[in-house]
Amino acid sequence: EVQLVQSGAEVKKPGESLKISCKGSGYNFATFWITWVRQMPGKGLEWMGVVYPGDSDTGYGPSFQGQVTISADKSINTAYLEWNSLKASDTAIYYCAAGYNYGYAAFDIWGQGTMVTVSS
Amino acid sequence: QSVLTQPPSASGTPGQRVTISCSGSSFNIGSNYVYWYQLLPGTAPKLLIYRNSQRPSEVPDRFSGSKSATSASLAISGLRSEDEAVYYCAAWDDSLSGPGVFGGGTKLTVL
Q1: CA separation for the pair A20, A41 (Å, rounded)
Q2: What 3-state DSSP class applies to B19?
Q3: Which of A31, A48, A52, B34 places its Cα 20 to 30 Å from the Cα of B111?
Q4: Which residues from A are below 8 Å from B95, CB to CB?
């Protein structure tokens, strides 16, 4: 079965660092772009950025450039989303997604989401 | 403020046909494919439409998509109670707003 499995929920304090993960299985992880998507409480979906695990090429949405780091380790089929210094406004559900069956831009495979809560 | 503009809400009664619009620009919808996703509470988004009007095999043919110039639409016919969800359009973007953008989402209520 083709799937993406994300790391579990996190509760952090402002200023702390965090790295969440997205592990792919059932397909050639290195050859499919992974996209990260944010959903803040009560808000819509936001396109954060992408990574190509094969060569770790990345791209960021303008609101996220410099705020997060997206990376991947193809040897363990895992993509990452990382913060150096969390803010309360980073509280959200974070999804990873991949376009597997219908092209790289059609996200038909999604992780279950990782809830990140940042609170003092 | 989302780069792609959707109405915040839509509604219909069971059996009706509803349409959700998505307006963009030459940088996104005008030059790239449009995708539609359904978001049910507590679940990950589900791909409904890809490449403007194509439907994944598991999506019922009650769902259809279209695109014209810098706008796109999602139509749902034979509305059912389980269609109550938030619907998002998405597209890749060739401007500094990219690499990709979502609409603000449309909450569909089945009355």
Answers
A1: 18
A2: strand
A3: B34
A4: none
